[in-house]
């Protein structure tokens, strides 16, 4: 493609604005809206109007939040969001704020409602189309709407919440006291779909195929006829970014894979096979094992390990990237949750712009322009477009693997020998769990090496070897996690195989700590 072929960045599709009124609700609503096939953006209340004005706006959703509308620290929303000429759905706190802003009254309630509740639908038109007359929803509120604003009527009630759903269909204003975005609300997706399609008339064009077309057009508009360097880790995000970029700019994409010697069994070979042999990408593999292991020699402190690995990575990547002197762009697999400004509990806005764990510091030192083709997407969408682009399920559905690799799964010094035994034990853990189909629903499942030597017996001989910890967790986002157990036979098989096949471990333990207070990794 020459400069003359440069494409204009595509206009954003018609979208829903989600105003984040605190806690974790807004992201979940956004994921549900996107799943339902509608584009949406999240903005904190202070920026809601500004964002609404640059969007092709189809409707507004006001999220739930932990504050009381009459509290001093309640998030402040400009009432002009109700004058944008589009339908508005207020959820929980969002409903209470809307009712109060339009002249209704909100009071603290004697009955806190928390958890599953059955509501009775009074008016099945519009928001409750196709919803059963009695349906289970998830409530979480203390306050309640006492007096409705003019023009509003009750649409649903529960035994303790007379105004469980309200609306003024003429103006397209609706409020629900329950949370349609959580899976415990049985027909929550249908309620959201009714709002998006029946009420806002959204086009339903947010599908993997159209996401790919849009991202490709955006990449082309940014990069023009330039060249791009991408650090490929073999994880979901960088893999999907690579395939998207290749679709957009072909062989002007150069991938660099740094083998830091801290990878899982067969990982480097799998990356080479997928990206070089299958996708025919220009892939440079740099074996920097010796350098990383030399930096880690004698290091026990986990933060020092991380710092050294981070620095080595930047140095190795930078040196390799210099080979592509004509490349002015650096691609990164940053996701939407990393760039969303979210509203904290006190109504203030916190910009949670995290630097990407694994390539932090690169753009500045390389003087390259960033290309982030996934920065408007959630992980579920990245996986969906990965599938659409023909990436193997083993990559698209793989468990997260940290940038510092097995170094954060070895307590104490990282040595070649320890890496070797951990790698073999970890392969047994993952392959047995996957073979049994037990990985579905798990966030991560792996082995960690504890440098605790203890006595064992093997045949007639005494052994004095390390301990292997099994870490198997369920989680939504890695921020909190619950330990998970496995079928006893499966655990027994994993344990037997590790002890019999991996010389260096004579004991296997199951980690039964949740996060917090523990962490997922063992460092
Ligand atoms: P912890 O151990 O803090 O981990 O409970 C939470 C989640 O983050 C992953 N993790 C990382 N991912 N680079 C990454 O890309 C890192 O440096 C890193 N450290 C931890 C971890 O695997 C878990 O899913």
Quick description:
With about 525 residues, the chain is α/β, with parallel strands linked by helices. It is about 30% helix and about 25% strand. Xanthosine-5'-monophosphate binds near residues 358, 402, 444 and 519.
Explain what this protein looks like in three dimensions.
The chain is α/β, with parallel strands linked by helices. Helices cover 32% and strands 25% of the residues. The chain has helices at 25-35, 48-54, 93-101, 188-199, 208-223, 236-249, 267-278, 289-296, 302-321, 336-339, 362-366, 379-388, 393-396, 416-435, 488-501; strands at residues 15-19, 39-43, 57-62, 88-91, 105-121, 134-147, 153-157, 165-168, 173-176, 227-231, 253-259, 282-287, 327-331, 341-343, 349-351, 369-371, 444-458, 461-474, 482-483, 505-510. The protein has a 9-stranded mixed sheet, with helices on both faces. Helix 7 links the parallel strand 11 and strand 12. Helix 5 (208-223) packs across helix 6, helix 6 (236-249) crosses helix 12 (379-388) and helix 8 runs antiparallel to helix 9 (302-321). The radius of gyration is 26 Å and the shape is globular. The site of xanthosine-5'-monophosphate (XMP) has 13 residues, from loops.
Q: Approximately what portion of the residues adopt beta-strand conformation?
A: 25-35%
Order of strands in the sheet with most strands = 2-1-3-4-9-8-7-5-6
As a percent range, the share of helical residues equals 25-40%
For the secondary structure, the number of strands is 20
Question: Which ions, cofactors or small ligands are bound in this entry?
Answer: xanthosine-5'-monophosphate
């Amino acid at each position: 493609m020459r400069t003359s072929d440069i494409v204009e960045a595509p206009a954003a599709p018609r979208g829903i604005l989600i105003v984040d009124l605190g806690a974790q609700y807004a992201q979940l609503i956004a994921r549900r809206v996107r799943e339902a096939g509608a584009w949406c953006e999240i903005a904190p209340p202070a920026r809601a109007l500004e964002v609404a004005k640059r969007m092709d706006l189809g409707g507004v959703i006001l999220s739930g939040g932990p504050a009381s509308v009459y509290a001093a620290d309640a998030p402040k929303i400009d009432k002009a969001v109700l004058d944008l000429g589009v339908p508005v759905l207020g959820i929980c706190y969002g409903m209470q704020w809307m009712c109060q802003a339009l002249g209704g009254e909100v009071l603290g309630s004697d009955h806190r409602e928390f958890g599953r509740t059955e509501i009775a639908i009074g008016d099945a038109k519009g928001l409750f189309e196709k919803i059963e007359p009695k349906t289970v929803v998830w409530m979480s509120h203390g306050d309640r709407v006492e007096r409705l604003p003019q023009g509003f009527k009750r649409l649903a009630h529960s035994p303790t919440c007379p105004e469980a759903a309200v609306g003024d269909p003429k103006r397209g204003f609706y409020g629900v006291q329950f949370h349609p975005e959580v899976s415990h609300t049985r027909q929550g997706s249908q309620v959201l779909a009714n709002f998006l399609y029946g009420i806002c008339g959204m086009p339903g064009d947010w599908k993997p195929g159209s996401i790919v077309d849009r991202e490709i057009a955006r990449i082309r508009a940014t990069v023009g006829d330039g060249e791009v360097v991408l650090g490929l880790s073999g994880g979901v995000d960088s893999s999907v970014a690579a395939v998207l970029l290749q679709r957009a700019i072909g062989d002007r994409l150069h991938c660099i894979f740094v083998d830091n010697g801290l990878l899982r069994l067969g990982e480097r070979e799998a990356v080479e096979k997928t990206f070089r042999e299958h996708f025919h990408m220009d892939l440079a593999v740099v074996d920097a094992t010796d350098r990383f292991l030399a930096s880690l020699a004698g290091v026990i402190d986990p933060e020092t390990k991380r710092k050294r690995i981070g620095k080595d990575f930047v140095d190795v990547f930078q040196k390799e990237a210099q080979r592509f002197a004509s490349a002015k762009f650096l691609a990164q697999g940053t996701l939407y949750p990393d760039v969303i400004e979210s509203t904290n509990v006190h109504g203030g806005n916190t910009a949670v712009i995290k630097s990407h764990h694994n390539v932090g510091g690169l753009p500045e030192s390389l003087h390259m322009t960033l290309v982030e083709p996934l920065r408007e997407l959630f992980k579920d969408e990245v996986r969906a477009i990965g599938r659409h682009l023909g990436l193997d399920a083993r990559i698209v559905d793989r468990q997260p693997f940290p940038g510092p690799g097995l170094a954060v799964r070895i307590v104490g010094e990282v040595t070649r020998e320890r890496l070797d035994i951990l790698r073999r034990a970890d392969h047994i853990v993952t392959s047995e769990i996957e073979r049994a189909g037990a990985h579905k629903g798990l966030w991560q499942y792996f082995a960690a090496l504890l440098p605790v030597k203890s006595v064992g017996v093997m045949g007639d001989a005494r052994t004095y070897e390390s301990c292997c910890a099994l870490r198997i967790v369920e989680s939504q986002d890695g921020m909190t996690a619950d330990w998970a157990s496995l079928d006893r036979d499966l655990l027994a098989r994993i344990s037997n195989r590790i002890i019999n096949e991996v010389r260096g471990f004579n004991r296997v333990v199951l980690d039964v700590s949740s996060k917090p207070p523990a962490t997922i990794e063992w460092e």
